[in-house]
Amino acid sequence: MRTPKIEKVVLNVGGVGEKLEKGVILLQKFSGRKPVKIVAKKRIPTWGVRPGLELGVKVTIRGPEAEALIKRALPAINNTLKARQIRPNFVSFGIPEYIEIPGMEYIREVGIMGFEMTITFVRTGRRVGMKKVKGGKVRRQDVTAEEIEQIMVERFKTKILRRVKNDDSKWLEKNNKTIEK
What is the CATH number of the domain that holds 116? Predict the structure, then answer.
């Protein structure tokens, strides 16, 4: 019951206008699902954001398809994650260019662009803590960053890189090998 599992994978692309339409095509080709457009709810004049403006697209995948999508996308980042990309309950990373994903070919309408991927982890019984009847937070249901690291290393053969103190240009792999940025 305490074993964490993958709840969902969310793919998203941010942008407006032409970039938004390219993002729709890209996410549809990669995931095989129809993406949903994200619409602004607030007005932020500094950024030119107004209510009703489409700011991005996203697609959510659950179940065994989600795990297959993760295995397909990780080689694009050389199966490495930085420690700061792992937080309690989720892992989030970006894929700079979709053509680096094995099996993906160049799409003329899209050009060169990337997207973000967020993997959400959950424990069995999480919904109980989300009920309105009993208020408060249930910390026992949180999946810690250490548990997520362990899952990513064991199940997906991912390397976790850690920053070396006093030197911003170097990253340390979990087994203490130095890697240049």
Answer: 3.30.1440.10
Cα(first)–Cα(last) distance of the chain, in Å? 39
Number of domains observed in the structure of the chain = 1
Q: What is the DSSP string of 131-170?
A: -SSS-S--GGGPPPHHHHHHHHHHHH--EEEEEPTT-TTE
pTM: 0.84
Distance of alpha carbon 95 from alpha carbon 181, whole angstroms: 16
Can you give the residue range of the structural domain that contains 99? 5-77+88-124+140-159
Helix (H), strand (E) counts: the chain: 4, 10
- pLDDT tens across the length of the chain (181 residues): 788 999 999 999 998 889 999 999 999 999 999 999 999 999 999 988 899 999 999 999 999 999 999 999 999 999 999 999 999 999 999 999 999 999 889 989 888 999 999 999 998 877 776 776 766 666 677 889 999 999 999 999 999 988 776 655 666 665 555 555 5
Q: What letter would DSSP give residue 75?
A: G
Collapse the DSSP code of 36 into the 3-class scheme (helix H, G, I; strand E, B; otherwise coil) and give the result. Answer: strand
Cβ–Cβ under 8 Å, residues 159 and 86: no
